[in-house]
Amino acid sequence: MTFAEVPSQAAVKQLLRQSVQRQHVAHAQLFRGSEGGAALALALAYAQYLNCEERTAEDSCGHCPACTKTAKLAHPDLNFIVPVTTTKTVTKDAVSSKFMAEWRAFVLDNPYQGLNDWMQHIGAENKQGSISKDEAVQILKLVSLKAFEARFKIVVVWLPELMHPAAANAVLKLLEEPPPATIFLLVSHAPEQLLPTIISRVQPVVVRPFSENDLTDYLHAHYQVPEAKARQVAQLAEGSLGAALASRDTNADHDYFEFFRDWMRLCFNYGSKAGDILKKSEDFQKLGRENQKELLAYALGVVRKVLLFGIDPKFVPHLAAGEQQFVSGFAKFVTPRNADLLTKELTDAHYHIERNANPRMVFVDSSLRLGSFLKS
Ligand SMILES: [Zn+2]
């Protein structure tokens, strides 16, 4: 993976490149960022940059033997320690090395996925993955060997917060007495759960969540998702590219913006539009529960935007073409006075749908209340 393949993140990429150019590569670094963010992708791009034989000031070359192997996650000096558990195929002594084929496929498919996705990928959904104490032995064995062909031996530890204390101690020992030419890249979603002794020995690399705009541009450019739709997906994903990629297919047929806009118009006129609200509740029913929840989550995001827009349009710089007109019109009716009520109503509706309430009843009930709040 090259830096260019990771969307946005310009500042942190620059820091990483400079560390190599100035030969200030810390032997242990902690990429910390939320699930669905760029932490793992950046660690991989950095690993490739470190061992590239023809790197430029900007990026790894992408075609030298080291890059080719690293890009396929098949470089003999690129090692992974990841949380695993017993599965149908690995019935005992679960350690990372037994899952490397699965791990490669998982990461190459999408490096922005989280622990649940990984557990599902190895057929261990509902199980707790961990970096076990057996892994401690593997880690020590791994680093006792010299780099085979590259300048650096690289050990990526994905989710070190899931290390068994024995594994954590093995890693700690290596951080205290670093083996030569070995670089540890820890990639964590919950760094606060790491031992303070580990934290104190790693150089932090802070990876910010993607912005709504980053996600919109990425979906639009790489997956040809139309801009308005990409923005809806991005808003729902809350900074997680993993979530955005996962949901771009599942709700491809639904335009939440249109649905929400039409719904709010009906709510506002619910006195004269009761029949239309009943009709709309059938459309809502047809969405199915997962999409109903997504629609409501999307609606919450729009209400927040509308409120911000009403305070100052500058707070909401990026709106799809059709949304702009609606948001500015709707902002007259969403004020600090009723925003809490609207938010609570949509949150409650989401809760009831989650609890398997009848979607049509929830929808009709909510419509009446939303209508009265909008007029208050
Ligand atoms: Zn290269």
State the CATH superfamily name of the largest domain: P-loop containing nucleotide triphosphate hydrolases
Q: Tell me the helix content.
A: 40-55%
**DSSP, total strands:** 5
**Strand count, sense and closure of the main sheet?**
5 strands, parallel
Beta-strand percent range: 5-15%
Continuous helix count: 17
How would you sum up this structure, described in words?
- The protein has 376 residues and is an alpha/beta fold.
- It has two domains: 3-209, Rossmann fold; 254-375, Zinc Finger, Delta Prime, domain 3.
- Helix content is 54%, strand content 7%.
- The protein has 17 helices and five strands.
- The protein has helices spanning 10-21, 39-51, 65-71, 100-109, 115-121, 133-144, 165-176, 196-199, 212-223, 227-237, 241-250, 256-268, 274-287, 289-311, 321-330, 339-354, 359-375, and strands at 28-32, 78-81, 153-158, 182-188, 203-206.
- It has a five-stranded parallel beta sheet, with helices on both faces.
- The N and C termini lie far apart (54 Å).
- The structure holds zinc ion (ZN).
- Residues 52-54, 60-61, 64, 66-67 line the site of zinc ion (ZN).
